[in-house]
Amino acid sequence: MSLNRLLAGRWLAGLALLLLLAPAAHGQARITISGTVKDATTGEDLTGASVHLAELPGVGAAANAYGFYTLTVPAGTYTVEASFVGYQAQPRKLTLTKSQRLDFRLRAGGQELNEVVVTGRAGQVNVSRAQSGVETLDLKQIAKVPVLFGEKDVLKTLTLLPGIKSAGEGSSGFSVRGGSVDQNLILLDEATVYNASHLLGFFSTFNSDAIKDLTVFKGGMPAQYGGRLSSVVDIRMKDGNDQAFHGSGGIGLIASRLALEGPLVKNKGSFLVTGRRTYADLFLKLSRDATTRSASLYFYDLNAKANYTFNDRNRLYFSGYLGRDVFGINNFGTNYGNQTATLRLNHLFSDRLFSNTSLIFSKYSYQITLQSNDQDFSIDSKIQDFHLKQDFEFSPSTRQTLRFGVDAIYHTITPGHVTASAAAPVNATPDRTNHSLETAAYVSHEWSATDKLDFTTGLRLSEFSLLGAGDYSTYDTEGNVLTTTHYNAGQFIKNYLNLEPRLAASYQLTDNTSFKAGYARNVQNLHLLSNSATTLPTDLYVPTSLNVRPELADQLSAGYYRRLGANHTYSFSAEVYYKWLQHQIDYRDGTQLQANQDVEASLLYGKGRAYGAELLLRKETGRLTGWVGYTLSKSQRQYTDINSGAWFNYRQDRPVDLSIVAIYQLSPKWSLSGTIVGSSGQAVTYPVGKYMVAGQVVNLYGLRNADRLPPYERIDVGATYEKPHQEGHRFHSSWNFSIYNLLARENAYSITFQQDPNDPTKTQALQTALFRMVPSATYNFSF
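Above: the chain sequence. Below: its structure as tokens.
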């Protein structure tokens, strides 16, 4: 059956369902109130804000990602109240005789301004909603957690949560529940960010001044998300202040940033522009060495967003990101970076049917150049997407929400194109740019069956089509070419169709305790090839093809959630999971990825498994806030041609992971923070012997990932001084001080082996540690 017929069938089924639901809703003679919930000072949408009726306990709605809510109740007189953590609740008394719009603008709660709220809405969401494995970070928390170089970093803060592990010392890459780095879908205002790191991973691409909200789904993602196996990190940029012009920024040891925001038209439109740049290259100019003085080493990024409300039913957004890393010394240079753009239209067809239409552009590219007399060459690589999404949200009653939609992504991938002069040390390669089309349709249904039992069911239908033009080969198990066929531009070469069912359920044992369980299948059609244990800018993306099949993951999870304390001061969660992985990709030993025109000949295909338990205890209010996270897990892979077909540890397998985060409000001016991190060492392969080849010593390596680096341990501390607000003064400033790796522990980044220069019969193990103790200071300001 063709995809068009399948999609048509789904749309007809969805339309029939809507037609059945609509008469039922009208027959109940109910009234619908709908509107938005915003910050009164800035005009920012308050995602997840609660709207409920005091006279109807248990009846309420949460604002969606755009601040919109809808609530259907019997006609009558009610007290409708909007609330959000850290804001003053706003009640309104009204008599409902017909459907109407009711907007709320909430003001920050004065008694909570000096508290640090670790997560904006974690306690309530974790107990009541069906979805498990969901974490939300508050930007107030990220600003005070000590990190490397003192730069606020959302991705590094994520790795302090259970089930999310850093790919390596200082790296922005991360692994979720036993998956690989590329199995995480990172979205910035719906646009895919393929390489979320600056400066080889020591910084993330996300300037915290531009971010409003961050949510991570650890495997059991809702049906509207797809394309990755392990997680979704959904990052939303600020909309900008629609009331008054404001600015903020910071000056650090190696980077500075500035953000400006204000109204386009007061109460109707706003803008936001942020910029950040490092100046490590300026310090290089102080060197006495001429080569060092002429070197370039910096990155920059720019975020921009604007929105305009035409009327109560239509609102238009535009957002964009541009970031680049540049490194050059002598005649060698490399630069890489991301570009994204999102044009989005929110439209209300009715007070119950919400629509979001998005046109998205995303591109990641890198270039390596060498210019030396007549031996010039360059390597260019890119992955570029044009993405169209249409999402609907329909609320037939207070107990049901139906989400459905379609999306299509046109991928263009150039996996390393070499151009070279005749005398260059490398050979030029033909342009192997490939094209593909990824389409999907989904439906998701959230249903509160009773006051205690909630379900979220979803189904996603995805198809991946490899397109011409180009020459495509098939290979045998030894990597030898079997056939090579030329395809014309636009020709469909191979199609893969997959169904992805999703199911989540929760049962509230008491008002403060719930049990959840879920199942999810995910499909991934873009695959990252890397020779590194972490991620490098030059890693290659390859699409599903004639030889490479879609990766599949099936995950079962269950969890226990509880709010503790008289005022829900604490929350506790315990989650367990088991994940089956199919069509996993690795490569033969000795494979070189760069300038490899037959990289698929070197690939191996196998399966994986990952399982574990995650414990999280939070303290969410008061002068002392923070959390303790503990993960006990295992992640393994199996390939016929590796370790004689036996299961082996995946390179990101670290069985034990512990993180402790504490933030203490010492006084209205001073707050102290600290983190303690400890984990098992990363799985590695060590040599078990050596032999001589042409007079050179060659190491003989043992079984894949049979050894481990030493355990990782680190303590970070920080302090923030905030100058008190002065009446009548808009300017506000603060200082942030931090020490990364307080005890100067030399954690192993890698261990290499070499012949002992004093005794050729012996081998030396050399440990590389990146950072001992790194102090930093940052001056922050706003006006």
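The first strand starts at residue 30 and ends at 39.
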